[in-house]
């Protein structure tokens, strides 16, 4: 990447400010949700704890203080780079997230990559030969992909590939006690990445198809064709390159959903990531954990969106951030 | 997505990921790395926090093999036998217990275990009001611990408390004074540094903990009961039951606890056997004895007669358990009696009792008294098929006798906090208790009991339970608790449903597994082996 | 595409954009088939109280997990309840939740989008910031948190799904408003002194109905699917009330022993969502013919 030019720097700082504002709003909303919630942290609800122990713990955790005081305290902590200590795990939230976030990123990135690798060729190919049997088959698969309940789909794949065929492990990220190498990771990654990626695969393929078709109707493509350029070259050099812009936009739009969807995929496949962590934290009412995860996931999504915007610059020379 | 700030970076990441995916499809299956004794793997539903001061099932399970208790329970009769303690005696005034400790015990860091550790754990951790010990209610009668010598302690109680040895085997792990002795109360609540490398006296020492993935404990060579035959125990974090089943079937797990709906499936797995393990427990439908109409014993009896508990046992529990007659589990052999008032399924009698209590059927079939319809909400926690099914079925039985019953399913947390708000706003709910192997049920049914969520108050029972706690003579105690059981059966403060077996799905490779509920089986792991 | 010039160019299609879209839609056989299936499914579940052979909540422990028979056409579940009756009643709840969610997010989306587009200026900037901000947040995660914390009642479920699902509509409506506010008849209406709200309500919104309909159709599909996902986490419609999502979730335990229990709700969710997506897609092609042309 070239050294940021002044307009670029200004653009970046504006985006960062916006992101900070967004994170603040999200944290306030989630904090409000937490404090409106009936029940309390599960560590306070152990059936063997007496009323006096519970009262003491509430004081220790600061839960007996007014809401704005609690929020201000949390905010001060965060400003100091401290996300607090998880109630249930007893470890610093930052440390836990530090261990889990990379796993979720690996899974999300693999799902994204898988969906792009399948969807773009499929989309371009169907755009080149629309309304053929091939096109209809791909279209059907796309609708299949966005219409099936994710957990159900995951369970089917586990039954088929792990139990019936015995090709792949049903869950986890590495074989425990085995080598933590790429091959082992890959074996564990295939099914969850496929499940997480399928809906996006369908969406990307549809958008690739429609935007490629739109480009193919443009005058300059007709010109290129009439000049006798081979169809393949037309497709990839002109049509697809321009369609790429749409795809990048769609990828950007789908990123939050990808990260959110990880909650179910990770639970189904026992993947040690942020999604399953978030589900458990929500049920355990592990407040510091919930707040920390919210903040980090939102920040990651914001950062990825920024990344997507920067990728535009490379793909489309017309765009400059000013 | 994380690292790629430049294009080459992105591309490299993409290549690595694609490589991983491809390698995954093409690569050979890695051979499980195991030593001679094998690794025993079981699931936990969340990360374990290896700090036995706080509750939660994942913690409890891991702590069972990492730490030791003063006593544990004999698999044959659930009587307390020595673990860290060798033997114990009670003084004539029934207030002072003398525990002789084992001499050859070392902590996992090699330091010797002594009486100082016991005194420290009880006084500075369990009894310390600044440290909220989750089992404090069970040992709250202890007033102090005196060190007699390195291997003898005296435990003094405020009042005669004959169940102390049993309570000292129930989720009461001893912790190392030589490490934690200098900690402040603040640090003792959550000793982050200690938990990175926890030190216990159990048969397995801490190996590694990968958050969200697993905890691995390895055999401790100098364990006082002899080195365990297994090389390691792995607790895998698997929250989803279907995923657990898949891992059991494909051999990644050696044990899981299943619910009756899974039994037919597991029966078809050739590599797995099913064990009905005994556990000191019971399930119940609770009445809020403080609110109308449950203040009326006739109504409570009627609602008990209206429920076909035998059908619930046969169809929902698939017969894996025994009909409950009261709050004391038959495993507590010396105290248990089934010669109490029985509640066979008898809807006609239920209707008669309701009518005697003044609840007459209205034109819509719903019973009314003074114009008020008999409307009951039955609360249950979400996620456990047996309890959810029980609630739905009980609702149907009650409807059959003219009660307008509804089921409300909520998160366990939310349900428990409703039960515990004072006054308890609920009418009826169905839950379970797992208890120490003891007949002392003061905590649950005495009018001052901390776990008395039923709003149950009866001076006669209070007196019996107080007597039982102070009586040292076994036969006299047994008589007192038998009388308590007879009294409670007739008074029907809750519907006692079933003493359920814990259904264990155990890999056939596992040998010498002790058939107790797995919380206690884990305290008998040294002989267990894994075959090929 | 619309307006007076189209009339001049193609007299045959002089029936207005909606009618022309309908004509195009009718030529899309798959979309029509999807519409027919949807009509059928909706009719069946709407008539559930009259079509159900049994009380969907009647528990008969003696008859659990029975295979299909003449009394129980699709067999019984783990409580001995009639699966067919529960599917019909559960469908009512699933579809009602889907449609209610869609309707609520339409209302929010139309208000936000309409306001932003018509008022313009700072209002527009702020509302679109809000919309973009919402789109940049992992909403499934927030929805999950909200339901886990506040409790998964049907009202909460619809509210949470609607509050996290209105942004597409808002964008579509705003774009339509920006497009139509400069059209001649809107300018004319403004010239004769119609109030802003009246113009939006009487002239601008009707113009965007086709695009809103597309968003609505896809919205129902999304809501039904989302409910089933939330059910998996125990945050969907709460049993003992039936929904397709929670029936499918409950059936997981019986997947490999009584597969029928899982197949029926699974297929119904899949087919319904598929048809909504399919129909919505056909509708979009019909409304924006540039996409469908060769």
Q: What would your notes on this structure say?
A:
The complex is a heterotrimer of chains A (322), B (532) and C (294). Chain A starts with 5 loop residues before the first helix and ends in a 7-residue tail after the last helix. The mean pLDDT of chain A is 84. Chain A is built from eleven helices and no strands. Chain A has 322 residues and is mostly helical. Chain A folds into two domains: 6-79, no CATH class; 100-315, MetI-like (MetI-like fold, Orthogonal Bundle). In chain B, the strands form seven sheets. Chain B has a six-stranded mixed sheet. In chain B, helix 11 (297-305) runs antiparallel to helix 13 and helix 17 runs antiparallel to helix 18 (474-491). In chain B, strand 16 and strand 17 form a beta hairpin. In chain C, 72% of the residues lie in helices and 0% in strands. In chain C, helix 5 (83-119) packs antiparallel against helix 6. The two termini of chain C are 17 Å apart. Residues 1-14 of chain C have low confidence and may be disordered.
Secondary-structure topology with pairs:
The complex is a heterotrimer of chains A (322), B (532) and C (294).
Chain A: H1 6-36, H2 51-61, H3 67-79, H4 93-128, H5 133-147, H6 150-164, H7 182-216, H8 219-226, H9 231-269, H10 274-284, H11 287-315
Helix pairs in contact in A: 1-11, 4-7, 4-9, 5-7, 6-7, 6-9, 7-9, 9-10, 9-11, 10-11
Chain B: H1 7-26, E1 39-44, H2 57-66, E2 71-73, E3 80-82, E4 85-90, E5 96-101, H3 115-126, H4 136-139, E6 142-149, E7 152-157, H5 164-167, H6 177-180, H7 185-189, H8 192-196, E8 204-210, E9 214-219, E10 232-237, H9 241-249, E11 255-258, H10 263-267, E12 272-277, E13 281-287, H11 297-305, H12 309-316, E14 321-323, H13 347-356, E15 360-361, E16 367-369, E17 372-373, E18 375-381, H14 385-400, E19 404-410, H15 412-420, E20 428-434, H16 442-445, H17 459-470, H18 474-491, E21 494-500, E22 502-507, E23 510-511, H19 518-521, E24 529-530
Parallel strand pairs in B: 1-10, 18-19, 18-20
Antiparallel strand pairs in B: 2-3, 4-5, 5-7, 6-7, 8-9, 9-10, 11-22, 12-22, 13-20, 13-21, 14-21, 15-16, 16-17, 23-24
Helix pairs in contact in B: 11-13, 17-18
Chain C: H1 4-9, H2 17-27, H3 29-46, H4 48-51, H5 83-119, H6 121-135, H7 139-150, H8 154-163, H9 167-180, H10 184-191, H11 196-232, H12 244-251, H13 260-287, H14 289-292
Helix pairs in contact in C: 2-13, 3-5, 3-13, 5-6, 5-8, 5-9, 5-11, 7-8, 9-11, 10-11, 11-12, 11-13, 12-13
């Amino acid at each position: 990447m070239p050294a940021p030019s002044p307009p670029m720097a200004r653009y970046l700082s504006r985006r960062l400010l916006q992101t900070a504002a967004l994170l603040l709003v999200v944290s306030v909303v989630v904090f409000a949700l937490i404090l409106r919630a009936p029940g309390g942290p599960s560590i306070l609800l152990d059936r063997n704890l007496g009323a006096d122990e519970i009262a003491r713990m509430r004081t220790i955790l600061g839960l007996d203080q007014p809401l704005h005081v609690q929020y201000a305290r949390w905010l001060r902590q965060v400003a100091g780079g401290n996300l607090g200590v998880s109630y249930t795990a007893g470890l610093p939230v930052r440390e836990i997230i530090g261990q889990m976030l990379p796993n979720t990123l690996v899974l999300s990135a693999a799902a994204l990559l898988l969906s792009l690798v399948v969807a773009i060729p499929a989309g371009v190919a169907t755009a080149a030969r629309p309304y053929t049997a091939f096109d209809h088959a791909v279209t059907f698969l796309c609708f299949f992909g966005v219409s099936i309940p994710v957990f159900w789909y995951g369970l089917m794949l586990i039954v088929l590939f792990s139990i019936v065929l015995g090709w792949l492990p049903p869950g986890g990220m590495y074989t425990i006690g085995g080598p933590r190498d790429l091959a082992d990771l890959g074996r564990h990654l295939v099914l969850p990445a496929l499940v997480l990626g399928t809906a996006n695969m369908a969406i990307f393929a549809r958008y690739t198809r429609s935007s490629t078709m739109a480009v193919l109707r443009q005058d300059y493509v007709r010109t290129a064709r009439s000049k006798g350029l081979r169809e393949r070259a037309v497709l990839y050099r002109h049509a697809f390159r321009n369609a790429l812009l749409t795809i990048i936009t769609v990828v950007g739009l789908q990123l939050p959903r990808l990260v959110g969807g990880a909650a179910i995929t990770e639970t189904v496949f026992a993947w040690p990531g942020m999604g399953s962590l978030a589900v458990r934290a929500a049920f355990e009412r592990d407040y510091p954990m919930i707040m920390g995860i919210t903040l980090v996931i939102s920040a990651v999504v914001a950062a990825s969106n920024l990344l997507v915007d920067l990728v535009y610059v490379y793909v489309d020379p017309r765009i400059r951030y000013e | 997505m994380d690292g790629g700030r430049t294009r080459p970076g992105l591309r490299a990441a993409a290549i690595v990921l694609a490589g991983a995916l491809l390698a995954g499809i093409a690569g050979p299956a890695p051979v499980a790395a195991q030593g001679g004794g094998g690794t025993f793997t079981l699931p936990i539903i969340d990360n374990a926090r290896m700090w036995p001061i706080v509750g939660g099932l994942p913690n409890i399970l891991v702590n069972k093999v990492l730490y030791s208790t003063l006593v544990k329970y004999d698999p044959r009769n659930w009587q307390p036998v020595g673990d860290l303690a060798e033997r114990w005696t009670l003084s004539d005034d029934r207030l002072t217990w003398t525990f002789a400790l084992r001499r050859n015990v070392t902590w996992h860091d090699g330091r010797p275990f002594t009486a100082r550790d016991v005194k420290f754990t009880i006084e500075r951790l369990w009894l310390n009001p600044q440290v909220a010990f989750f089992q404090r209610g069970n040992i709250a009668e202890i007033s102090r611990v005196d060190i007699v010598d390195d291997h003898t302690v005296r435990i003094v109680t405020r009042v005669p408390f004959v169940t102390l040895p049993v309570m000292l085997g129930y989720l009461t792990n001893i912790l190392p004074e030589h490490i934690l002795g200098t900690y402040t109360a603040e640090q003792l609540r959550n000793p982050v540094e200690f938990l990175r490398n926890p030190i216990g006296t159990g048969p397995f020492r801490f190996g590694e903990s990968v958050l969200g993935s697993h905890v691995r404990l390895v055999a401790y060579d100098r364990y006082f009961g002899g080195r365990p035959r297994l090389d390691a125990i792995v607790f895998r974090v698997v929250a989803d039951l279907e995923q657990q089943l898949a891992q059991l079937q494909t051999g990644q797990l050696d044990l899981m606890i299943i619910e009756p709906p899974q039994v037919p499936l597991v029966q078809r797995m050739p590599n797995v056997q099913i064990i009905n393990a005994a556990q000191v427990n019971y399930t119940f439908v609770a009445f809020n004895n403080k609110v109308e109409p449950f203040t009326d014993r006739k109504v409570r009896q009627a609602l008990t007669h209206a429920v076909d508990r035998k059908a619930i046992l046969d169809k929902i529990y698939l017969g894996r358990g025994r009909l409950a007659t009261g709050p004391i589990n038959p495993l507590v052999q010396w105290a248990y009696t089934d010669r109490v008032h029985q509640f066979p399924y008898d809807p006609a009698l239920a209707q008669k009792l309701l009518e005697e209590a003044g609840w007459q059927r209205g034109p819509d079939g719903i019973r009314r008294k003074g114009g008020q319809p008999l409307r009951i909400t039955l609360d249950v926690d979400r996620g456990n098929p047996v309890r959810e099914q029980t609630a739905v079925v009980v609702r149907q039985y009650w409807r059959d006798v003219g009660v307008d019953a509804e089921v409300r399913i909520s998160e366990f947390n939310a349900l428990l906090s409703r039960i515990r708000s004072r006054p308890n706003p609920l009418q009826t709910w169905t839950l379970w208790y797992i208890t120490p192997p003891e007949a002392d049920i003061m905590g649950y049914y005495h009018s001052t009991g901390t776990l008395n969520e039923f709003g149950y108050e009866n001076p006669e029972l209070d007196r019996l339970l107080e007597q039982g706690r102070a009586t040292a003579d076994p036969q006299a105690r047994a008589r007192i608790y038998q009388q308590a059981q007879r009294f409670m059966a007739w008074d029907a403060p809750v519907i006692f449903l079933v003493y359920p077996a814990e259904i264990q799905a155990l890999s056939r490779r596992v040998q010498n597994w002790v058939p107790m509920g797995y919380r206690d089986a884990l305290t008998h792991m040294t002989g267990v082996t894994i075959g090929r | 595409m619309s307006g007076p010039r189209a009339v001049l160019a193609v007299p045959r299609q002089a029936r207005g954009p909606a009618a022309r879209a309908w004509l195009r839609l009718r030529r899309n056989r798959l979309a029509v088939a999807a519409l027919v299936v949807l009509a059928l499914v909706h009719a069946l579940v709407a008539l559930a109280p009259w079509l159900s052979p049994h009380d969907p909540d009647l528990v008969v422990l003696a008859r659990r997990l029975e295979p299909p028979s003449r009394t129980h056409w699709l067999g019984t579940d783990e409580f001995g309840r009639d699966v067919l009756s529960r599917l019909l009643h559960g469908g009512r709840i699933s579809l009602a939740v889907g449609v209610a969610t869609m309707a609520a997010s339409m209302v929010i989306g139309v208000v936000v989008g309409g306001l932003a587009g018509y008022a313009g200026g700072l209002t527009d900037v702020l509302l679109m910031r809000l919309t973009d901000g919402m789109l940049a947040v992992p909403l499934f995660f927030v929805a999950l948190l909200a339901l886990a914390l506040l409790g998964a009642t049907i009202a909460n479920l619809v509210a949470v799904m609607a509050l996290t699902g209105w942004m597409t509509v808002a964008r579509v409506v705003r774009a339509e408003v920006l497009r139509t506010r400069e059209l001649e008849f809107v300018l004319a209406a403004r010239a004769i002194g119609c109030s802003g709200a009246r113009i939006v309500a009487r002239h601008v919104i009707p113009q965007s109905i086709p695009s809103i309909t597309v968003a609505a159709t896809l919205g129902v599909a999304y809501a039904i699917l989302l409910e089933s996902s939330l059910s998996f986490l125990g945050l969907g419609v709460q049993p003992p009330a039936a929904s397709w999502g929670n029936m499918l979730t409950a059936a997981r335990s019986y997947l490999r022993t009584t597969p029928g229990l899982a197949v029926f709700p699974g297929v119904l969710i899949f087919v319904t969502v598929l048809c909504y997506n399919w129909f919505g897609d056909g509708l979009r092609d019909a409304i924006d013919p540039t996409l469908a042309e060769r």
